[in-house]
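Case study 2.
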Amino acid sequence: MPLIEPLTTPASPRRYLIGRYHEIALKGRNQWRFIEQLKRNLRDAFAGIELGAMRSEGPRLMVELIGEEPEELIVERAALVFGLQNFSISRTTPLDIEALKREAVSQARHYPGRTFAVRTRRAEKRFALNSMEIDRSVGAAVAGELGLKVDLENPDFTIAIEIMPAAAYVAVGKHPGAGGLPVGIAGRGLALLSGGIDSPVAAWRMMRRGLRLDFVHFHSYPLVSAASREKAADLAAHLTRFEGHSILMLAPFAEVQREIVARALRPLRVVLYRRFMMRIATALALRAGASALVTGESLGQVASQTLANMTVIENAAGMPILRPLVGMDKNEIVEQARMLGTFETSILPDQDCCSLFVPAHPETRATIAEVERAESCFDIDRMVTMAVDATEKQRFEFPHRRAEQAA
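Prediction:
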């Protein structure tokens, strides 16, 4: 007999994804906006998987899983959704201690490990047993039935129980989420994707702060091979897993470089390349409805990333430039690239436009006055328009993970 009369008693166990958020819970009166964006992103990430109703229960998002997809697939998709601090895949039971014991034993039976712990959260305070009493009762049943040992300090796995008004939820194991804020809640940006190690990490970090991104890659094909274009496409496809859909813009840069090489002094070439990239990226961003550019620049890492040069380069952009890696060193960036899964692609050999026509001794302390004098001989509007009009676009979607030409 149930210890309390629930609002509804599930006729058979149902499976739920229970996502828990941390930062979203601090948003006060605006919290509902973040939760609605999180729901939309979850449905995008779970395309092809049947989901039931979603509802918010305190600091949790409850999502009914209708189908019988394997747990591994559910975990893979949920781990990509920014906004979830952690999540579990739970099954419902009636609000009855004996039912809790049976479900805990059933799930623990299939989980590897010799030690376990039970952790209960009791949102429904009318339940006759408190959290510690539930832990002890369920733990004794699992230990007695399966011969496992309780270890509260370092268990092989944890049985999580949540006592809610309508039912109890039992899960074995809790999975780390992507954290951060739901993609799209902070607006739209355009990330410069070089094909190297840094820029994919920068893009991921800004998506994690709620910015939806498209990507632009500057290339010098056919003066060099198409390898950098292919790398950029692979990296864009990988990053699209975190936001559902994106566009990669492949901007030709060879003609711009030729004009700069023909008319500018060698030391200033790199700075001039970067200034033209910012102008072209700004024009593309405005067409895409983006309001900021994202780069993988890290202060002092290369000649173009000294403070003086970054200031001069930013002067050419027509919108804010976000640099999430600016205070990180290379080892930190490489570590995040490995975690993200982009490192192996980024280190594949290629010939990108930044390695073409690079002077041996580039200027590290350029000034606005000298670069503006150098640019006075260029028809800047024509050069930018030429590159923008010749830009190709590819559209990416996840979970389909396909690329197609975009209009």
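The chain is about 35% helix and 20% strand.
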